[in-house]
Specification:
Largest sheet: 2 strands, antiparallel
Structural class: mainly alpha
Distance between the termini: 51 Å
Number of helices: 7
Helix content: 55-70%
Length: 138
């Protein structure tokens, strides 16, 4: 049991060292994104991994939307006419974007105002979330 506890402590120290290094590298690569509301070191690292050093591969807003899975796709049936998010894209980046959107909906004043306005229009939170994600990506 003692050996297991020592190993856990050693790994905990190693994790802390790597987190400090990751944060310094993330701040070095994208300091303006780190200042954005709802974006943590881990989220920024996911974004940087997704884009890599070649931002040129994203040629248009449509390509960016497809990569982040925030482009609309028709999901109508019968008399209903609605849209859903296109399934595809990078799952890790999508999860990171979802967390940013949830944090913004909860804490950011502008996002709260946007959610309240869209709710007044009759939209549900499930319908508002893709719109908010698209706004965050842009």
């Amino acid at each position: 049991m003692r050996a297991l506890a020592r190993r856990w402590l050693a790994l905990q120290k190693e994790i802390q060292v790597h987190e400090v290094e990751l944060e310094s590298k993330a701040r070095e690569k994208a300091p303006e994104l780190m200042k954005s509301h709802g974006i943590s070191t881990q989220t920024l690292a996911e974004m940087l991994i997704l884009f890599g050093d070649k931002l040129e591969r994203i040629r248009s807003e449509a390509a960016l939307a497809k990569l982040w899975e925030v482009c609309p796709a028709p999901a109508s049936g019968g008399k209903t006419n609605r849209m859903r998010l296109n399934l595809g894209g990078n799952r890790h980046a999508i999860a990171a974007l979802y967390l940013v959107a949830i944090v913004c909906m909860r804490d950011d004043k502008k996002s709260k105002t946007y959610v309240f306005r869209r709710s007044a229009e009759g939209k549900t939170r499930r319908e508002i979330l893709p719109c908010l994600k698209w706004h965050i990506v842009r």
